[in-house]
Amino acid sequence: MAAAYGLYTHIQSNKRRSIALLLGLFFLVYLMVFAGALVAEALGRDAPIDLLIRKALQDLIWAAPIATLGTIVWIVIAYFFNQTLIDAVTGGEEVTRKEQPRLYNILENLCISRGITMPKLKVTQDEALNAFASGLNEKQYSITVTQGLLDNLDDREIEAVLGHELTHIRNGDVRMLVIAVIIAGVIGFFAELLFRLMFQGGFRWSGGSRSSSSDRKGGGAGLAIVIAIALVAVAWLLSVVIRFALSRRREFLADAGSVELTKDPDAMILALRKIEGRGELHGATSAVMEMCIDNPREGFADLFATHPSIDSRIAALTRFAGGHDPGPLSLPDEEQSPEDAPEQQEQLPDSQSGPWGNDTPPTESAPKPFLPKEPPVTLGGERPSGSSAGPFPGPWGRPRQN
Length: 402
Known about the structure:
Blueprint: H1 8-44, H2 49-90, E1 93-94, H3 101-114, E2 120-124, E3 131-134, E4 142-146, H4 147-152, H5 155-171, H6 173-200, H7 221-244, H8 249-262, H9 265-275, H10 286-289, H11 310-321, H12 332-335, H13 340-347
Parallel strand pairs: 2-4
Antiparallel strand pairs: 1-2, 3-4
Helix pairs in contact: 1-2, 1-6, 1-7, 3-5, 5-8, 5-9, 6-7, 8-11, 9-11
């Protein structure tokens, strides 16, 4: 696999796309404001559709500075408090070397080996096996791992996971994902506001001029509301496309970057096999799951999946990095469930069970079988002199009498 860590073309592409996403955010906000103005005009008058659209455009021009300021405030809040919000959702808590010496030392060694500024290290008390990186700049960057990951992965595998997340930070993927989360939040806020306006009614747009009763009756209100709903759907769909336009190729590159850092493709493969199907963070939003090393939440027919499948990622590591795939793995606590333990104890009640079943071996108190006492045998198979018994039968029968 080609070395992906430090691919400057990929980093520069992420920076350009980050700017494009922010510009796209303002476009979507203006689109939502126009849809809201159109609904407000339709609720306020029953006029031809062309008049309603023209009035809605006037309202948009009036409201654009307010919408721009509100969006900037939203971005500033997200810039400074994005990590606080993510920690509130996941329960992540920052740890030090004293609290997590094993995890802290592995991350520190990786950062020192490449001269990388060490991000903050956080642990969330979740049994799921997952990890993610977050932040918008070097002062905010952090890597969060679950307690389940620490309990089930060895040092090599944890090092591979941390290398994967460090690559996301270096390549600028984390910044892109956070911006996508901001866009989804803004569009969701305006969509909810607009639907409240539509279904609760009674709202009057104060920006545009109100026509008198001499306005023409054109019956365009219903059509205007339909157009507004369509615009909201388009804005929401575009926000989804923006989120999922973040190429799934970033996960392949992060896997490759981990291999370059650790020089151990098998560790990355084993980590992915253990994480496979066990990464669901309960209570986490979809936006947070998109930042994780594995997102088990799949879209329709994998069309909206934010991550490539584990099998495809392992196939790439096997083909290009020379790794070896052991196939799906079960964790130690999955090999024997607690419910099966009593049944096995009933089958083998104690240590007296032998290899041929549960038969109790004879003890000293058990009666011994009767065996007739035989006098000692001399060479040649004959009884000693004075014995009343005949010749001693050897292993091939009784000797012939002469």
